[in-house]
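Priority: medium. Attachment 1 of 2:
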């Protein structure tokens, strides 16, 4: 009986080994197939992407050009708006300063020029004024 049990156990062990080895080989087969099929699937997707890109390249460029054109219009409009607001602010500030009695840059330039002209005339009169008392003293 011992021989039969040993033989049966040995057969069972051999069957388990064979079964485990087959499972192992099946796993390796799955990995190999996944690698091959994965590479094929990846390459297929790359090819489809190239086709799609070449078919739609002009459309992509047109969309990009349209977006750039819209951006440029918006930028120009914004710049114009900023300039307009700046001009309005300058006008309001100038009016406020004028109401407070603060002279404008042009008024200051005009006054400075007038002061320089008057200073030159005064300087031109000084030598005459200094010379006249000396002459008056000689006559007396």
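Attachment 2 of 2:
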């Amino acid at each position: 009986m011992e021989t039969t049990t040993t033989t049966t156990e040995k057969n069972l062990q051999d069957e388990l080994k064979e079964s485990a080895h087959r499972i192992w080989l099946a796993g390796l087969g799955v990995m190999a197939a996944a690698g091959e099929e994965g590479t094929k699937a990846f390459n297929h997707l790359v090819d489809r992407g190239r086709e799609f890109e070449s078919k739609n390249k002009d459309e992509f460029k047109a969309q990009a050009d349209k977006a750039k054109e819209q951006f440029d219009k918006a930028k120009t409009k914004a710049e114009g708006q900023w300039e307009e607001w700046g001009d309005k602010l300058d006008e309001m500030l100038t009016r406020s300063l004028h109401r407070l009695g603060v002279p404008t840059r042009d008024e200051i330039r005009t006054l400075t020029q007038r002061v320089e002209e008057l200073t030159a005339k005064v300087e031109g009169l000084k030598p005459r004024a200094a010379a006249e008392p000396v002459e008056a003293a000689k006559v007396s």
